[in-house]
Amino acid sequence: MTTHHEADAHVQHVYARWLDAGTKLGFILLICSFIAYAIGVTEPYVPVDRLPDLWRLPVDRYNAATQAPTGWYWLHHWWRSDYLTYFGVVALLLTTIASMLRTVAAFYSLGERLQAGIALAQAIVLLLAAVGFGSTH
Amino acid sequence: MDLDFAPHKRVLAPPGAHPATISGCHPTTGPLRLNPARRGHRARSLAAVAILLFAVAAPAFAAERAAAAWWAWPLSLFVVTFVLGVIAVVAGVGGGVLFVPIVGGLFPFHLDFVRATGLLLALSGAMSAGPSLLRSGMASLRLAMPLALAGSLASVGGALLGFALPTHWLQTALGATIIGIAVLMWRAKGSLHPHVESSDALGTRLALHGRFLEVSQGQEVHWRTHRTIAGIAVSALIGLLGGLFGLGAGWANVPALNLLMGAPFKLSVATSGLLISIANSSAAWVYLHKGAVVPMIAVPSVVGVMAGARLGAHVLGKLPARAVRQVVVALLAAAGLRALLAGLGIWE
Prior knowledge:
- Chain A has helices spanning 4-39, 51-54, 59-66, 81-109, 113-131.
- In chain A, helix 1 (4-39) runs antiparallel to helix 4 (81-109) and helix 4 packs antiparallel against helix 5 (113-131).
- Chain A is built from five helices and no strands.
- In chain A, 36% of the residues are buried.
- In chain B, strands 1-2 form a two-stranded antiparallel sheet. In chain B, strands 3-4 form a two-stranded antiparallel ribbon.
- Chain B is built from twelve helices and four strands, in the order βααααααβαββααααα.
- Chains A and B meet through helix 1, helix 3, helix 4 and helix 5 of A and helix 4, helix 5, strand 3, helix 10 and helix 11 of B.
């Protein structure tokens, strides 16, 4: 029979493994894509020499001035070097969701339904935030 | 056993505690009355701190003057955040709480972009440290989850509120919050192993107890928590502030877990990182969807702080941690005051 402590250790190791892998992937993507952005591998959506004038503005005026896409619409311009860096950020943010979903299964398999339910609720909150619930119009 | 974070008093750190991981806790000791040798040491300490401050401010002003060259900005941002990363580790504070008020005050970026970057920065640091803390059992996922759920929901609300509020309101609130954090850092005390007689009903239902190996003492520490509902409510408030201002929340999570819920100090510090990685993640989506993540600001900052933190961990014993922490608190108070006055329209 699995003790409370063994169950916790198992789930924590599962979560840690997923978190570790996703974080490393995210950082590698972030740094490689930024190097591509800095050396101008592809043309950025917002020219870099315009940035010093634009980043003084609030985000809604910045978006209006650049016609920059919000929500997931940046994927329409994914090859632009500034949006390439978004893949690293998204990988980092998706890591938490993937790790949490994996935790749901781990808790459930150990018969810890209440903890599995909390993890599932957490994953749903993160997924809703990821799809832009409440933040995109 | 009490831990006094106040740098002007004697600080009792947990045996073997590493200041890089134990926020606000340093094995620095010493009487208030200084002998001549100590005065000399203090003068050298202050000189080192002055150099650090110059290192923070100079690149920003240099970039302002060389504004024609776009590359000067990420370069100066990298230098500033690198120094902040070193200071954060030496002073035992989170990078996010330094980044938002200091970069917000030194650089011409709008607060929306600074908040988004601050959130990513806190998230990156917490995610990097998370796996090893989870594997060692120092962080408790079981304890973090109910708190993180409340924090996540509130941080999304905080982020949305931040975009709805006028900038000067936000700046005023940020200034007041930062001053509050500086006071908390100056005054807060911690408890190494708080005594919890019994869990409350919800804590028992959630099985909020466990054990971890205290490596420095070579013994297992058994823990349990209480005041679960109050802890969840406070986590929601912390999440709201974190989402609203883009601050990491270690400054508030650790006292909430340790002093309010009765978790051991080390467990509180480690679990706080886990909480940040989950709660900040949901708010970060809001900033990303709103278009507030500007890669030219965000990436050099994240890389700079991470690299600086690595150096900070190496030079920890060589820098005057106590003096750095004192100056960081003063710097935070000054940055908070600056934001407050800017928000009130007194010092634009």
